[in-house]
Amino acid sequence: MQQSIIHIALVVRDYDEAIDFYVGKLGFDLLDDTYQPAQNKRWVVVAPPGGAGTTLLLAKASNPEQEPFVGNQAGGRVFLFLNTDDFWRDYERLRALEVTFIRAPKEEEYGTVAVFEDLYGNRWDLLQLRPDHPLAARGRMR
User: Fold this and answer.
1) What is the predicted pLDDT for the residue at 10?
2) Nearest-angstrom CA–CA distance, 58 and 45
3) Can you say whether residue 137 is alpha, beta or left, with left for phi > 0 and alpha for psi between -120 and 50 degrees?
4) d(CA 65, CA 70)
5) Bridge partners of 126?
6) CA dist., res. 97 & res. 113, Å (int)
7) CB-based burial label for 117 (10 Å; 0-12, 13-18, 19+)
8) CA-closest candidate to residue 116, choices 69, 140, 81
9) What is the pTM of this model?
10) How many other CB atoms sit within 10 Å of the CB of residue 115?
């Protein structure tokens, strides 16, 4: 059996501002942006450059029950982990684009990591795993 998680839904306030952040600041690729008239919503999918794994489905909050989860999808914990092949390159690029880092870079036994927030306050790890980490081959950039 072979399975994979293809999308993670990320609740956003507005499609275009989310695209601006994820594509414009983080440098993700916009893979799909299709209007779905039957549901009066857009299907917006983004992914890190060079990534062949899970994508983000930017899902606009569509009712009052969903709105409080914009920016708080993981209850204040780190929610998503962006693995990179060059931590310092990406860290400096994101800082120059005024992405907010809430934890400074740190060397851990698994690699180099810093925590940043997306435009809504969801927390992300920017991460470069050590080459000998068991998950390094799995997240290896091609």
Assistant:
1) 97
2) 6
3) alpha
4) 10
5) 82, 114
6) 18
7) middle
8) 81
9) 0.91
10) 17
What is the greatest pairwise CA distance in the chain?
49
Say how far apart CA 51 and CA 90 lie, in whole Å: 15
CB-count exposure of residue 76 (10 Å: 0-12, 13-18, 19+): exposed
Q: Which residues of the chain have pLDDT under 50?
A: 141-142
Report the distance separating Cα 14 and Cα 97, nearest Å. Answer: 20
Chain centre distance of CA 42: 19
Q: How far apart are CA 20 and CA 119, in angstroms?
A: 10
Would you say 66 and 11 are in contact if contact means Cβ atoms under 8 Å apart?
yes
Which residue(s) pair with 56 in the sheet? 8, 46
Write down the pLDDT at residue 30.
98
Q: Are 122 and 10 in contact (CB under 8 A)?
A: yes
Judged by DSSP in three states, 91 sits in helix
Q: Give the Cα separation of 33 and 45 in Å (integer).
A: 7
